[in-house]
Amino acid sequence: MKALIAALPLVLSAAAVQADESCGRVTIADMNWNSATLIANVDRFILEHGYGCDAELVPGDTMPTSTSMIEKQEPDIAPELWTNSFQASLDKAVAENRLKVAGKVFSDGGEEGYWVPKYLVDKDPSLATIEGIRANADLFTHPEDPDRSAFYGCPAGWGCQITSSNLFRALDLESAGFELVDPGSAAGLDGAIARAYEREQPWFGYYWAPTAILGKYQMVKVDFGSGVDKDHFLDCITQVDCQTPKVTMYPESPVYTYTTDEFAKQAPAVFEYLATRSFTNDQLNELLAWMEDNQADGEIAMEHFLSEYQDVWTGWLSDDTATKVNAALENF
User: Fold this and answer.
1) Transferase as a keyword (predicted)?
2) Which of 219, 194, 192 is nearest to 208 (CA)?
C-alpha cells in the first residue's frame, strides 16, 4: 500500500504531462494590426505555459487566414477575425465542420460611430445627440471655411468612407451647414482629433473602436435617435450606389476567435479557454494607447498586459493554469 501511495504522484504527474502533450503543435495567426498581434501573443504565452502547447505565431491577415483555415485547416487559431464582410463563407465552413467559433474576442464587438469630445458633452449634454449637433453646428468650424461647419469623415478608399458619407446624407447634415471633410489618411484623422483635444476645441466626425485614439482621448458616441436597422445598413448604407439612405446607428461589428474543427477536437481545454477569453473595448483602447506611447510590439505588450491586468486574464483560467502562467511570467 505504501508503495502504491508513493507511486501516485508519479502517476498523476505523468497523466498531467500526457494531457499537456495532447495539445501538441499549435499555430496562431498573428495579424498585422496592434490589437490582433497583442492578443495573438497573449494566446501564445498562455497556451505554451498554461496548457503545455508547442505554440507558434504565423503571419496572418483576415482573408488569407480564413481561406487557409477553411481549405487547409491551417493555422489552427485566428484570434481576431472581423467577420462582417464574409460572414456567409464562415457560416458555411462552420456548417460543414471545417471551422469552429470559439467566442467573441471583443465582448462589446467592434464599434463605429460619429463622435464628439467628452468635454463638449460635459458642458452641453445635448451634444451627445444628433439634434444637439445640428442645433449647434456653428461650434464645429471648418478648418478652411469659417462660414461652414466640419464633419470629419473616414479616409478615402476605406469601406467606412462609404458608410460615413451615406449616413451624412441620411442625416441631412449639409442642410445644417456641415461639409464632409476628407482627412486624407488615418494619421490625418487622428491628428485632427488630437489637435482639437489639446486645445479643447469642438470636433465632430467618424471613428471606430477599439483604437489607441479612443484610449488616449475620451470621446462620446453621438446618438442618432434611430436605433439600429441592420438590414438597411448592410443592404444600403454599406453600398456605393445607396440611393435613399435612411438614418441608422452603426450595428456592432462582430469580432470572433475561430479555430479549425480539427483543433477544437484535439484540444478541448484550449478551445474552452478561447471561448472564455475576451476583452472589453475600454481595456483594448487603454492597451493600444500604451502600445503606441511606448512603441511596443505584440510581445512587449503581452508582457505588460499579463503583468498589469492580472485580474482580467486570471478570470479566464483555472487556478492551476493561472499559477503556471504566473510562474512563467516571473521568469520571462
Assistant:
1) no
2) 219
